[in-house]
């Protein structure tokens, strides 16, 4: 803890950076979405090239899957740069279908756990909310994209505030010279 207290200012800078990012995301959601898509594209390209390189260096058993994975990742990166709108929409659909499928599985688990636990209805309600969220994203994808960016922005601001508060609490633990 003493080591962390010595670099309390680093925690403070992280918090301030998160707050600034969050505010900018809330002020300029369209630009934020585009930047996230560009970062994803850059990551996918780098990941693809390294995976492809690994594929050519591995044995015959895992080589094909690594090469295929690398090519798919490179293609995803290219698509993100060429068609950023489609990429952001694809991300929304991934989140929507994940919410629907995980919600259905939570509902089924809640029903199956009725005899084992009490208050299983909480899991069923959580699953139903997840399904509704996924369906709403599919019905209104434009609003869903904007909402995702806003959630990122709000999270960043709250996280930043927590880090700033933590930095001053940690600073008090530093030994006084």
Topology readout:
Elements: H1 2-6, H2 8-27, H3 29-57, H4 60-82, H5 84-112, H6 121-139, H7 141-171
Helix pairs in contact: 2-3, 2-7, 3-4, 3-5, 3-7, 4-5, 5-6, 5-7, 6-7
Summarize this, please?
It contains seven helices and no strands.
3D architecture notes:
- By secondary structure, the chain is an all-alpha fold.
- The chain contains 7 helices and no strands.
- The chain has one domain.
- α2 (8-27) packs across α3, α3 (29-57) crosses α5 (84-112) and α4 packs across α5 (84-112).
- The radius of gyration is 22 Å and the shape is extended.
Which class of secondary structure composition applies to the elements? mainly alpha
Q: How many beta strands in the DSSP annotation? A: 0
- Distance linking N and C termini: 17 Å
Q: Please write the string of helix (H) and strand (E) elements.
A: HHHHHHH
